[in-house]
Amino acid sequence: MKIYTRTGDAGQTGVIGGRVDKDDVRVEAYGTVDELKCFVGQAMGFLDKDKFEDLLNDLLEIQHELFDCGSDLALLKQELRPYKVTAEMVDRLEAWIDKYDAETPDITKFILPGGSLASSTLHVCRTVCRRAERRVVTLARTQPINEQVRRYLNRLSDFFFTVARLANSRIDVKDIEYARSANVFRRK
């Protein structure tokens, strides 16, 4: 099998159900999800397998689910096949957030991204996830989408915030509070 097809040389790409311009809002949406999937893989490389086996398993599942998100976003018409991303996937993310949040110290102020390399990269995942969500919101203004993808990405950015803090906490690195932050978080 050849990797190159030459079918995109004129500036269009195939989606499920047709072809669109490579800078189409749909391609921007699923392309940003693909970028996020790559950063998740990078973050996984910075996590110690012994200290983070549970998180590594969850992040691997998230990579698969991000593929599902991209697949649903690449679908021009829902009649072509059922959507892959479900409300149950969002519910499971919430359970993971609650589980990992219980392991982190209380915070009341905004924090600066950083500490460990793993935490920093998980914060990058959070911000790329937010961008993906914005691209999906833009797409949804003009075209039908699987609404669960938008919900999933919204919850996923909260997950990344939580596990970025967890990555620091498990290796005894303190989060750095933003010096001029008001109290914005409620205590647990």
UniProtKB/TrEMBL annotation:
GO terms for molecular function: corrinoid adenosyltransferase activity. Keywords: ATP-binding, Cobalamin biosynthesis, Nucleotide-binding, Transferase. Its EC number is 2.5.1.17. Residues 3-166 form the Cobalamin adenosyltransferase-like domain. The keyword DNA-binding does not apply. It comes from the Bacteria. Pathway: Cofactor biosynthesis; adenosylcobalamin biosynthesis; adenosylcobalamin from cob(II)yrinate a,c-diamide: step 2/7. It holds the Pfam family Cob_adeno_trans. It catalyses: 2 cob(II)alamin + reduced [electron-transfer flavoprotein] + 2 ATP = 2 adenosylcob(III)alamin + 2 triphosphate + oxidized [electron-transfer flavoprotein] + 3 H(+); 2 cob(II)yrinate a,c diamide + reduced [electron-transfer flavoprotein] + 2 ATP = 2 adenosylcob(III)yrinate a,c-diamide + 2 triphosphate + oxidized [electron-transfer flavoprotein] + 3 H(+). Coiled coil: none annotated. Belongs to the Cob(I)alamin adenosyltransferase family. This is Corrinoid adenosyltransferase. The lineage of its organism: Bacteria, Bacillati, Bacillota, Bacilli, Bacillales.
